[in-house]
Amino acid sequence: MAAMLRALFYLTILFNIHFSLAQDENQFIYNGFQGANLHLDGIARVHPNGLLQLTNTSKNLKGHAFYKIPLSFNSSSSALIPFPSFSTNFAFAMVPEFPYLSGHGMAFTISHSMDFSQAVATRYLGLFNFTDIGLPTNHVFAIELDTIENPEFEDIDDNHVGIDVNSLKSVKSAPASYFSGAEGKNISLKLINGEPMQLWIDYNAPQKTLNVTLAPLRSQKPNRPLLSTAIDLSQFLLEKMYVGFASATGSVASNHYVLGWSFNKSGPAQNLEISKLPPVPSHKKRSQNPTKIIMVTIAVILVLIMVIGAVYFEIKRRKKYEEVREEWETEYGPHRFSYKDLYIAVKKVSHDSKQGMKEFVAEIASMGRLRHRNLVQLLGYCRRKGELHLVYDYMSNGSLDKFLFSNEKPNLSWLHRFRVIKGVASALLYLHEEWEQVVLHRDVKASNVLLDADLNGRLGDFGLARLYDHGTNPQTTHVVGTVGYLAPELTRTGKATTKTDVFAFGAFMLEVACGRRPIHLQGQTEELILVDFVLECWKRGAILDASDQNLEGNYLAEEMELVLKLGLLCSHSIPAMRPDMRQVMQYLDGITSLPEIQTDIGVFTSMFTSNEASEFIMSFPSSYGRLSAHSLSSNESILRKGR
Ligand SMILES: *[C@@H]1O[C@H](CO)[C@@H](O)[C@H](O)[C@H]1NC(C)=O
Ligand SMILES: *[C@@H]1O[C@H](CO)[C@@H](O)[C@H](O)[C@H]1NC(C)=O
Ligand SMILES: *[C@@H]1O[C@H](CO)[C@@H](O)[C@H](O)[C@H]1NC(C)=O
Ligand SMILES: *[C@@H]1O[C@H](CO)[C@@H](O)[C@H](O)[C@H]1NC(C)=O
Ligand SMILES: *[C@@H]1O[C@H](CO)[C@@H](O)[C@H](O)[C@H]1NC(C)=O
Ligand SMILES: *[C@@H]1O[C@H](CO)[C@@H](O)[C@H](O)[C@H]1NC(C)=O
């Protein structure tokens, strides 16, 4: 009897609890799910402390939890009962197996059926399968908390909240975040951070608007929703619908928990009582080891990459500095450099023949004996497969043309320019007349003039062209030089003389004084011939108009006039009319004054333009192999420049 009474007593208590939790099918609240009226399937279970666990870290499994009693939504029988508004909120937590990897997410779900046996886990979240996804007959509405970016469903990222109708291709979605009124800005949330959060879903049936709002568990409900959209749920939901949660794992898995849930069709859902909610188990210990393993793996891979990289670069480095060395070269020992020492080098001459190399190197050694303060000293050479490198003194300020034509260097004052012109003139005089044999330069131009630390001009690449003549058939003609600096007779006969050097020097003087190249393109097609331009200014009685505008008139007028007129004189089309370098020096030093110069057009001329010049590029003596020759532009040398 007592036992029976006691049994009845317990039964009454049980009934009361049940009743108080869900008196009304239109509203319920669960602060923890002890004794909750839930239908569970898959791996979903309620822990003794009331924690609802939808999934654990077992792979490719589903878990569902639905409120057992169907709720009436779309009353088709009577138009008098309108589609209800509803409001719900729940607390959840996602505790992943690995800190940065989680699958596949969970969804608050309103469905016409609780039977999801045909649905698939993984990215389908246990809601759909391959054949029924997207079908209007599903009658499934869901708010997904998606932690994997899935291109098939056009997911925006791997951490978002989305509104889904009959499909997992969201109607609308947003990266997980909440609006903080205190801070006045959105704050991002990582869904899989293991911390409990709350989600609110509010549907206003008359207005047909839906709000979804996310926040950390202990925050107030933000006054701005994360998602807000116009949607008519009456189009999708049937009369009897079940509300609950679906979740699934894939090849990566996460513990998905629901801590508490309130639902209301009669007004705003009550707030959960946070103090009553079950705690979320910590999985930190489990997740530490995999982290460590990942870190160690990454470290090992990095070390491997570094070792492989070091070996690769060492092989590459050796290859890069590989040189050609032959027995006979020991004789020229002091003139030979290691390629590594001069990789910042100098002048590269291609050769693909061994023939004549010996003579060539002998010439270089001989050129190395040339000494003048306005010559760049040739120090020696280096040989590699198919390449010969000539080593000159390093000139810290680079070439003169950079100062004249590019903005990367400061403007050069007239004082410096005039000094450079005189210096180059004296170097040419030395080559032509003062050394033991006549050395022709054959490529005088601003880019072959280098400036030392004190901005003194030093002529580079001297004598190099002469080497090409060595031991060759005198019948062979070959032009060496640069278009715009080539004397007219040189292009006809191919025979270089001191006067062809003087012609080039004339072009060089005009270049320095005017700050323009001998031939340069004006606009699209028109070429400006510098000689013609200076001549025109002169005939107008305003030769100083030709001076470089960057100088802004800061020059000695007599010096400028002298350089311009002397430049023209050196550009005379008749070689005999050009002064020699000794006379040039005397004019520049003011020892002799300039003769009268005829200013007829046609007397001074660069004779041809760059297009015509290409015909004059000839083969080089075969005994030295084929030196690299290629088509010319007006400021390109026939000798290919090294680095
Ligand atoms: C997940 O839950 C299922 C069902 O409760 C259980 O069989 C399985 O061992 C659990 N897996 C893990 C990793 O705890
Ligand atoms: C997909 O689910 C539907 C029920 O929604 C079922 O009729 C169908 O057979 C399932 N398809 C597959 C391939 O399992
Ligand atoms: C959705 O949020 C907006 C902006 O806060 C608000 O004006 C509107 O009333 C909300 N609607 C519902 C159904 O809660
Ligand atoms: C905050 O996020 C919402 C939803 O993504 C967006 O509409 C809103 O412009 C954001 N507000 C600020 C201040 O960034
Ligand atoms: C819901 O009810 C409305 C009005 O009775 C009806 O037009 C609509 O088709 C219903 N929706 C569904 C999915 O049956
Ligand atoms: C539902 O809304 C009504 C009216 O605002 C309120 O009295 C009731 O407490 C709410 N119930 C729940 C479970 O939110």
TrEMBL record:
Signal sequence coordinates: 1-22
Membrane topology: Single-pass type I membrane protein
GO-annotated molecular function: ATP binding; carbohydrate binding; protein serine/threonine kinase activity
Keywords: ATP-binding, Cell membrane, Kinase, Lectin, Membrane, Nucleotide-binding, Receptor, Serine/threonine-protein kinase, Signal, Transferase, Transmembrane, Transmembrane helix
Top-level enzyme category: transferase
Gene3D superfamilies per record: 2.60.120.200, Phosphorylase Kinase, domain 1, Transferase(Phosphotransferase) domain 1
Residue ranges crossing the lipid bilayer per the database entry: 293-313
Catalyzed chemical reaction(s): L-threonyl-[protein] + ATP = O-phospho-L-threonyl-[protein] + ADP + H(+); L-seryl-[protein] + ATP = O-phospho-L-seryl-[protein] + ADP + H(+)
Protein localization: Cell membrane
InterPro entries: ConA-like_dom_sf (IPR013320), Kinase-like_dom_sf (IPR011009), L-type_Lectin-RKs (IPR050528), Legume_lectin_dom (IPR001220), Prot_kinase_dom (IPR000719), Ser-Thr/Tyr_kinase_cat_dom (IPR001245), Ser/Thr_kinase_AS (IPR008271)
Domain Protein kinase: 302-597
Superkingdom: Eukaryota
EC number: 2.7.11.1
Family, as annotated: Belongs to the leguminous lectin family. In the N-terminal section; belongs to the leguminous lectin family.
Protein name: non-specific serine/threonine protein kinase
